[in-house]
Structures are given as C-alpha cells and as structure tokens.
C-alpha cells in the first residue's frame, strides 16, 4: 500500500462519527440530529432541494447548483455528522475525475458497440448545432450527476455504512437507486433491477474503492452525457438535445427498449464485471467497513 493509500485510510478513519463536546448538552435530540439518521435526512433534503431548484435551469445554472450542493454536503458532514470530508477534497480531484470519466466513457462505448454488433442500434446525424448542443447537455448532466452522487453515495451510503457496514450500505443504496428510477418513463421491474445492479452496485463499489466523490460523479456524468449525445434514452428520458438519432431493432433485453441503454443486458453484465474487482480492491485498501466495526463506532 502506498503512502497515499495510508493517508486516505487514516482520513477515512478520522472521518467516522465523533462525539463532539456539546453532544451531551442536547441530550436525546442531540443524539438524533448528530446520528446517522439525522444528518442523512438533512443531507438528502438539503442537496435534493438544490437539485430541484437548479436541475432544469438555463445555461450554467445546473453546474452552479452542483457547486452549491457540494457546499450543503460539506456543512452537513462537518456540522451535523461531525466528520472530515476527504471524499470531496480538492487535492487529487482532477485525477479522480479523469479516472471516473474514462470509466464512464468506456462503459457506454463498450455497451453501445456490443448492441450495435448484435443489430440493436443504428445511428444517424441529428443535424443539431454541435457546440450549443454539447454545452447544454454537459451543463445539465454535470449538475444532475453531482447532486445524485452526493445524495446516494455521499450521504445515504455513508450513513447506512456507519450503522451496518459497507456491504449493507452498497446493497441498500443500489436497491433504492433502482427503485427511484422506477418512476421514469418506460420503466419496468427489469429496468429497475438493471439500474440497481449496473449503476447502484458499480457506483457504490467505485466509491468504496477510491473514497472519492469526484470519481463517481465524473463516471455518472460522462455515462449520462455520452448516452444523451448519442440520442439514446437516458433512464427512460428521450433527449431533445442530442447529436445523433438512434433506431432500435430486436429484443428489449438487447436494446433496453423505451427505457434506453440501462435496460439492456450488456451494461448489466459489464457493470457487474467492473463492480467485483473494485470491491475487491476496496477491501485490500481497508475501505470496506465490516458490520461489527460499524456497530462499535456507534456505541
């Protein structure tokens, strides 16, 4: 393990729940507010409100909203959870974002090429203005990816992890992530399960591996941006702003049907193939919290 890995693990241990000098002063309410349930609810509501207000705003508004959401997350973690926030540290953020972006691009590229090879997708140029379309797509998807990752991997996963360990946290947030997407257009039970596996499990494993919000946000951002620019429905939402139009043929298990790429069997398989080694690497780095250790931290 490198010096960087040791420092990351030390930061992670230091980021655990701390009692704080005034915790007893507030008695039961203090324990609730500063406990995992209290700060998780505050974080989910705070980041969710920012996302709701800025997600569909014009120009750079979604990106600015993502920045505000990071600030809300920092306040919740430092003031309510009483823990350090190495997962949003600026040091190494660029490297983590590049790694996550490369993973997201590779994930979509390989999945799409496999579907094309089996006759499921064919593409044609959509004749949209390239610069304006790309700028619009990137702004919207950057804000959406960052706020979603702050809520699911930043707040929810770490709150559950503190109580029941990393394995339960990844499984629970993956199922929740899939369930939330069941409300999207074209969603089915299969698409919800597919999202839970390929996105919830893979992104959860990626977060445990590097303990970096920038990695998972960049992976999510490039994944969704690439899909939209290709004209493929993004979790059931058919994009207006796109560079290509897609024509599908064949089984819904091949193409994902109206829900889009995420409901195809190929990204599910690829997501699992990526999640397993990342989870194993997270264990080697000491980033997987066992349930017993999590229980001791809350006594």
Number of domain modules = 1
Strand order of the largest sheet: 1-2
Helix content: 55-70%
Shape: globular
End-to-end C-alpha gap? 30 Å
Beta content? under 5%
- Unreliable spans are 1-24
State the order of secondary-structure elements, H for helix, E for strand.
Answer: HHHHHEHHHHEHHH
How many individual β-strands?
A: 2
Major β-sheet annotation: 2 strands, antiparallel
Query: Radius of gyration from the CA trace?
Result: 20 Å
Number of helices: 12
Mean pLDDT: 89
Structural class: mainly alpha
Throw out a few tags for this protein:
299 residues, mainly alpha, two-stranded antiparallel ribbon, 2 strands, 69% helix, disordered N terminus
List the helices and strands and how they pair.
Layout: H1 3-14, H2 27-34, H3 36-54, H4 61-80, H5 93-117, E1 121-125, H6 130-164, H7 166-180, H8 189-210, H9 213-230, E2 244-248, H10 252-255, H11 265-284, H12 291-297
Antiparallel strand pairs: 1-2
Describe the model.
This protein is mainly alpha-helical and 299 residues long. The protein has one domain. Helices cover 69% and strands 3% of the residues. The protein is built from twelve helices and two strands. The protein has a two-stranded antiparallel sheet. The protein is globular, with a radius of gyration of 20 Å.
């Amino acid at each position: 393990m490198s010096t960087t890995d040791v420092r990351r693990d030390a930061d992670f241990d230091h980021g655990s729940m701390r009692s704080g000098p005034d915790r007893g002063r507030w008695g039961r309410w203090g324990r609730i507010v500063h406990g995992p349930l209290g700060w998780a609810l505050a974080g989910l509501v705070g980041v969710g409100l920012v996302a709701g207000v800025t997600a569909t705003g014009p120009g750079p508004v979604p990106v600015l909203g993502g920045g505000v959401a990071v600030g809300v997350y920092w306040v919740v973690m430092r003031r309510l959870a009483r823990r350090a926030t190495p997962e949003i540290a600026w040091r190494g953020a660029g490297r983590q974002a590049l790694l996550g972006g490369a993973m997201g691009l590779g994930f979509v590229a390989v999945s799409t090429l496999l579907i094309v090879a089996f006759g499921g997708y064919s593409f044609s140029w959509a004749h949209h203005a390239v610069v304006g379309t790309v700028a619009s797509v990137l702004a919207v998807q950057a804000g959406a990816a960052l706020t979603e990752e702050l809520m699911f991997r930043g707040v929810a996963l770490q709150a559950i992890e503190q109580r029941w360990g990393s394995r339960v946290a990844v499984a629970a947030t993956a199922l929740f992530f899939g369930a939330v997407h069941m409300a999207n257009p074209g969603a089915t039970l299969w698409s919800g399960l597919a999202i839970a596996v390929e996105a919830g499990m893979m992104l959860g494993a990626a977060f445990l591996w590097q303990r970096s919000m920038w990695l998972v946000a960049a992976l999510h951002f490039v994944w969704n941006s690439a899909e939209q620019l290709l004209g493929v429905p993004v979790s059931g939402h058919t994009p207006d702003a796109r560079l290509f139009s897609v024509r599908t043929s064949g089984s819904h298990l091949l193409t994902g049907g109206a829900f889009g790429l995420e409901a195809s069997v190929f990204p599910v398989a690829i997501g699992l193939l990526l999640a397993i080694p990342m989870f194993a690497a997270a264990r080697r780095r000491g980033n997987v919290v066992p349930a017993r250790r999590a229980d001791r931290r809350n006594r």
